[in-house]
Please model this.
Amino acid sequence: MGRYVATRLLLALPTLLLILGVVFAVVHAVPPVPSVEIDSNVDLRSVTRQFRREFGLDLPVFVNTRPWTDVDDVLALLDANDEDAMLELRRFAVVPLLALSEPGQERSIEAWTWLGRCVPEDVDPREPETDRARKRERNSAWAIVTSRSAAERVGAAREFVAARLDHYAPQGLDTVRVMFGETQFATYLGRVLRLDFGVSVHDRKPVFDTLVGRLKYSIGISFGAILLAYVFAIPLGVLSALWRGTRKDAVLSAALFSLYSLPSFFVATILLRVFTVGEPFSWFPPGGFHSARGFDAMTPWERVLDVAQHLALPIVCLAYPSLAYLSRYVRSSMLDALGSDWVRTARAKGLSQRAVVVGHALRNALLPLVTLVGNVLPAVFGGALVIEVVFDIPGVGSGLYQAIVQRDPNLILCGTLLLSVLTLAGYLVSDVLYSFVDPRIRFGERSPRVGTERVR
Model:
């Protein structure tokens, strides 16, 4: 069992990496923009440039081809007067700019001016101390270069760059490192490995703390929906199997299939209209996790009732899609179990219908249902995105919706990673539970006949 779990966990790593890469590409196809007040005194280009540098958006997304920047590329940017692109090149534009600043070059003065903007580096306090020390050393050395006379400074700049050529013009393996390492995706992966998921581009708060704070609301409605779905799905599936071929079975199947075909947001809207502020019933509040006023003054029992009243409709909306197909799985499994040899043997022994159905058929029919735990858990969390928005519940789903609307990449990526981990964990839990429900299943045993490792 331990070896099987370890193998699954190792296989989950490349799966998470692939999911994260796809989502990262989609999110950064439309990069975020800073939220600023419209003011004539605000330099929007400067604010945008600082915003992109702060969140690493000035780096290429997956592949960095800037080490191959040459004189022609720099001349094209100078002709286009593309200040932002030149500043994003920074150190990779230093060598071409130095060549253009040689005495006698047509644009030497302009090139030298740009050298003065591209060489100095911002020291980020979030960086490792070694990187900050190197930046401070280069900035100090460049300050000495610029203090030289006009006749000496170009020669001093050549010596400055030659002493640091591996930084301004990497070669060999350093080029590969820059090509794939100095990118937005590699930078984000490095932060994730340190359990740093970044901050929101809007409120500058850590996105992981934001999602964890919302998780308790999502867990409340999601596990309530799963419990409700299983509680009703099992007896409905058993009854449908026992009523096979009858009018009752046809009516129940038609009702469940009709229920499954209804979108959750549509059902949520109808329930809100009928049972909250509409006629003829006003039994439930229209939204929220609990009452906005007076909740802190309630007794513990009153708080439980208040939360239950607020979550009743969201839980129903999340539970009914799972209820529909779970009951169909139970029905199918029960039909197979009722037609098996051991059930016929039990009937031949004179056991009662209840003992045959509950003691023999149902236990074996629940095996496929256990494997569906891996599907139900992430499906419910995914469906909670819409339900939380409709019912104004401050959970992970509504947080992701706001992040998508506001184009907050760190929050979207952290939420997606959370749901991906939840999905893979659900599948693993379902496999492990399968072995506990059926003692015949053992992971990692060797077949005595073929000598190969297998699950049986």
